[in-house]
Amino acid sequence: MKTQLSKSPADLQAKLEGQTRYVHDMRLPGQLVGKILRSPHPHARIVRLDVSRARAIKGVVAVLTGEDVPHHTYGPTKFKDWNILARDRVLFIGDEIAAVAAETDAAAKQAIAAIEVEYEELPGVFDPEEAMQPGAPVLHETIAGDNRPMRIALERGDVERHKQEAAVVKSGRYRSNRIYQGHLEPIGAIASWSDEEGITIWAPSHIPYRARETYAAGFGLPEDKVRIVVPPIGGSFGSKYVLKVHVIAAALAMAARRPVKIIMDRYEDMVTAHPRVPLTFDLEIGADREGNLLYKDVVVYADAGARVYWSPNVIATACTRPDNIYRFQSAKSEGHLCYTNNSPTTCMRGFGNAEMLFAVESVIDEIALELGMDPAELRLRNIVRPGERTIHGYRLDTCLLEECIDKVKAISGWERRADLPPYRGMGIALANHVSGFRAIDPRFDGSTAVLRLKGDGSLELETGEIELGQGMSLSYARIAAQVLGVPEGSILVKSGDTGRYPFGIGTLASRSTVMGGNAAKLAAEALQRRLVSLACEVLGKGASLEDGRIRYGEETYPLSEAAAWHRARHAGEELTVRETYVPDTEMPDATYYGHPSPNYPFAAHVAEVEVDPDTGRTRVVGYWAVHDSGTIIHETMAKGQVYGAVAQGIGWVTMEDLIVEQGRVKNPSMMDYRMPGARDIPNIEIAFLEGEDPNGPLGAKSLGEVALDPVPGAIANAIAHATGKRGYELPLSAERVWRAIHST
Amino acid sequence: MAWIQPRSVAEAVELLQQRRARVVCGGTDLFVGGPARPLAPEQEDWLDVRRIPELCGARRTEEGLEIGAAVTAAQLWEEETYRALPALQQAAKIVGGWQIQNRASLGGNVANASPAADMVVPLMAYRAKVRLAGASGERRMALQDFIRGPRMTALQEGELIVSLIVPERMLGTAQVFLRHDQRAATDISIVSVALAAAVAGGEIAWASAAVGAAAARAYTLSEEEEQLWRGRLDAKAMARLGALYAARSAPITDVRAGEDYRRSLVDTYIQRAARTVLGQ
Ligand SMILES: Cc1cc2nc3c(=O)[nH]c(=O)nc-3n(C[C@H](O)[C@H](O)[C@H](O)COP(=O)(O)OP(=O)(O)OC[C@H]3O[C@@H](n4cnc5c(N)ncnc54)[C@H](O)[C@@H]3O)c2cc1C
């Protein structure tokens, strides 16, 4: 028997031992199998829909179409373009038309096959720039008659003047591609309905409170009539936010009055995948002769797909965040978010920043080449420094970017770059990120923690953040343990139930360590104060808390005794504190100026590659990652974030591509969608330059996304250095590099 | 649906006549088809050939080396017997990962007739023969004639592959198998090349090469054209060979690679194979 408290139900050991129970492993009494009928066409009118044969099949309990579900205006962002099931038109391959709940998988499949649909195919539009043209088919008349739900236009400083002054100007059309998040656990959910409690959905989502709000609106229910319970999440990277599958499971459960489970197989998951938002960048950067960056000018086109998931935030990030790494004297961004008849796109680790940095870091290398300057030197000359306020208003209390560059040069042996053998190359790239982002929810920001002393003297910490395998629970336990002087193993971190745990904005924007960690720290401090005053009350003045025990004179008492003291005085209630951390940030204004995060992590990466000139095949042979993420709270988990991010980046740059033609995914299997394996990953050397940030818990800044942000740029620059050819379009697959080498 | 395990070729052939059974060996092709290739209907039986001793080992004959159809990729690269066939060993070692190699069979690779099959390619270069058993007895044919196209073979109803026969003259020659793929392990061939050559004193007496994944099926040149391999191949001769094999390819464009890219890879890998056997 395991006697030691597990740190979290989703912790590493449980996963390794196969103890973790994912939604797929759950089974509620009376549970039905749910399946969805999806559009085979990218754009079509539903002329006839007949489910009578499906309803007659034995074992079928509910069949729903657009006629059977409410049609409220809803969606996860301010662009409310969602439905539950399509009524008259389908907008992408995979768009949901009908749903079935049945006793068995076979009956559900049979019912889906028995549904008769007649379509009138409509012309589709698949490219954001074409979607903006007059005459293009319009997807959501009421939201954007020009297919453009969002436009960004901002300028700081005088770009036109700097264009006149610049001695070197480099530009190009860069493209980042659709990336499948590659979560091991396919998308799925179980939903149930009761008249007293409303909807309960068990779904791996790391933004469950937004999901609750969105789904409640979808059904016209009050928010507290929807409860989201989050089982352990088998990988997300951005794919498991707010999903139609959850809504449809709920609709079926309401109709069937029994729990309904929908689990996609890999094929359905990939055909209907909501991949990384593909972005096109027309980017231009100019510098003076000494290598001072003068301006950056970019137009970004983003393919939202047929509905808005998280693409608005992604394009906004792309249009602003990378500008805060360098001292650009002026910057201009224009962004166009466009509807197309592709499956909706959404966020993925890096969230627009990694994509734009691929382009920015590429162009900066081109400038260095033209100036005959070392690319690291050029960067050192232009980076932001501690104490500065960046071009878009970020206040940098701490910034070890300069030290990161120096360190990554040292450990990578950067001076080797000058005389590498042919077709070997080294590339450098920088990155920044946020630790939570003020504009994710304009209404509020921050995080709440509840800390409870249990009868046996152990502690329970409840948070609104979500464990995704990133090590959040370990970090919170460590933070609280350090404050209270108790062993980490005595703290159980709990989260992931909107009906039980504190409100959370959603675990995204690299926020969990800083936001939830600060809340955990505040709660631990509050508990400490409460324990001391309780001890004084019981034992007398001068009682204290030392090394996790109450001390009074020579006597010490375990926390279990303190727990009993409190309960004796409070009708059996456990000693509980609740603390909220509200960051000292500034909401970005209409021009995207503000200080949106309590602090900002930085990184400098170097990649070394070997390119086979005959085949174009790139091997990443060395990788060095230096990070300023403030204090590192849990080094093992922190390194895990960097290893994983670099591996993910290597996949992204050298092979991964969700190929979509005319709205159809051409490689919807893990066999045809290539992701890297262990042998594609070189030795990765990691260095954390630890400095305490005043706004982070124990001095920490974020790490999750900044670890991926520089990878595409670093590898792309290494390939350009190796081959003498610049890659403009991700992935820089062997075939693309071969074409570049052999083009004249 | 039954899982039947005959203990001899005769029994297997008889069972195949009696019932609608599908031959299965490692199942690594049959059972992982995905939604695009649904499994056989449930009333069908499975005839597992892995318990037939004749299919499970190798033996030397006057003709050469006869390898049982159920011999696995792992056995091929691990066992002493196959040392004389390094190209086949290299191909076996690249198939899938360890778990797959423990199940994937040589006969399955041949019968499945995927244009991208790896172990087929050295067998083609070896000019191997296929030994078949069916209701009307045994027959054998050249592998070249057996594989007709993508997933098409000359296997008849009720027949199974007993073994593959590698001619004597191939054993112990200088050999290499090269594959171009997208990542470092567990992948599908974009182009592959196998070469077996009799090399002495830096000179090639004769050679035979096959190219995989660049046409509907793996291909070789005619023995006449293969004369081009003879001698001390200089850069020009190698380039000519590369170009000739590339010209004979008929690649497709799919999600993995474009046609012209595949064609260029044929050229590249033929030349690399040549340099490898010559120790350059
Ligand atoms: C993850 C993975 C990776 C793979 N990687 C590779 C790779 O790198 N290279 C490669 O070439 N292949 C690869 N494969 C494909 C597969 O493993 C090989 O083709 C393997 O050799 C098939 O052998 P098997 O015994 O598993 O065949 P099975 O799946 O059992 O059978 C395949 C076909 O052959 C028929 N068959 C089998 N044995 C006989 C016989 N004796 N007589 C008549 N018909 C027979 C079956 O009826 C069936 O039609 C991979 C497969 C997987 C799942």
Which features characterize this protein?
heterodimer, A: 744 residues, alpha+beta, Aldehyde Oxidoreductase, domain 3, Aldehyde Oxidoreductase, domain 4, 7-stranded mixed sheet, 5-stranded mixed sheet, 18 helices, 28 strands, 27% helix, globular, B: 280 residues, 5-stranded antiparallel sheet, 3-stranded parallel sheet, 28% helix, binds flavin-adenine dinucleotide
User: How many domains is the backbone of chain A divided into?
Assistant: 3
Low-pLDDT residue spans of chain A: 1-7
Rounded to an integer in angstroms, the radius of gyration calculated over CA atoms of chain B is: 19 Å
Largest sheet of chain A: 7 strands, mixed
Helicity of chain B, as a percent range: 25-40%
Extended strand count of chain B: 13
The main β sheet of chain B shows up as: 5 strands, antiparallel
Distance separating the two termini of chain B = 55 Å
Average pLDDT of chain B, rounded to a whole number, is 95
Which chain pair has the greatest contact?
Answer: A-B, 26 and 19 residues
Describe this entry's structure for a reader:
The complex is a heterodimer of chains A (744) and B (280). Chain A is an alpha+beta fold. In chain A, strands 3-5-1-12-9-10-11 form a seven-stranded mixed beta sheet, with helices on both faces. A five-stranded mixed beta sheet of chain A has the order 7-15-14-13-8, with helices on both faces. Chain A has a four-stranded mixed beta sheet with strand order 16-24-25-28, with helices on both faces. In chain A, a hairpin with a 2-residue loop joins strand 21 and strand 22. In chain A, helix 9 packs parallel to helix 10 (353-371) and helix 13 packs parallel to helix 14 (512-539). The model of chain A is unreliable at 1-7 (pLDDT under 50). Chain B is of the alpha+beta class and 280 residues long. Helix content of chain B is 28%, strand content 25%. Chain B is built from nine helices and 13 strands. Chain B has a five-stranded antiparallel beta sheet. Chain B has a three-stranded parallel beta sheet with strand order 1-3-2, with helices on one face. In chain B, strand 6 (129-134) and strand 7 form a beta hairpin. The model of chain B has no long low-confidence stretch (mean pLDDT 95). The structure holds flavin-adenine dinucleotide. The site of flavin-adenine dinucleotide (FAD) has 31 residues of chain B, from strand 2, helix 5 and strand 10. Residues 22-30, 32, 49, 69, 94-96, 100, 103-105, 107-109, 111-112, 117-119, 155, 160-161, 186 of chain B line the site of flavin-adenine dinucleotide (FAD). Chain B: InterPro entries: CO_DH_flav_C, CO_DH_flav_C_dom_sf, Diverse_Substr_Oxidored, FAD-bd_PCMH, FAD-bd_PCMH-like_sf, FAD-bd_PCMH_sub1, FAD-bd_PCMH_sub2, Mopterin_DH_FAD-bd. Chain B: GO terms for molecular function: FAD binding; oxidoreductase activity.
